[in-house]
Design brief:
It comes from Hymenolepis diminuta (Rat tapeworm). This protein is mainly beta. The chain is 10% helix and 40% strand. It has one domain: Beta Barrel (Thrombin, subunit H), CATH 2.40.10. The protein has a four-stranded antiparallel β-sheet, with no helix packed on it. A three-stranded antiparallel β-sheet has the order 1-2-3, with no helix packed on it. The termini are far apart.
Length: 97
């Protein structure tokens, strides 16, 4: 059987899924992302949480929605880098370019 397109490009077809644990540490949440084997923490990030936050997994990112705020942040699971999105409630009302 011929290799899949990802195998032909030299990319692994192994699942990139990670287990993320959220831990309350008193002054916020600590997000621990485990390695693929779930044997050790690969990425650890302290998240200053104000109130409740909804967390959704999307592709290779975790998306954090502040329930009582307009804040939306993305965490790249491969690097641990966090980036904020603009105010989504305001952005929805802006005209499309």
């Amino acid at each position: 059987m011929p290799p899949s397109s990802t195998e032909a490009k030299g990319e692994s077809t192994e699942s990139q899924e990670r287990l993320a644990l959220l831990r309350d540490i008193g002054d916020g949440e600590r997000i621990c992302i485990l390695n693929p084997e779930c044997t050790e923490v690969e990425i650890e990030h302290q998240w200053p949480v104000d109130g409740e936050v909804s967390v959704v997994a999307f592709q290779n990112k975790l998306v954090f929605f502040g329930i009582h705020s307009r804040r939306v942040d993305l965490m790249d699971l491969s690097t641990g880098q966090v980036s904020s999105l603009p105010d989504m409630k305001t952005a929805r009302s802006l005209p499309v370019c």
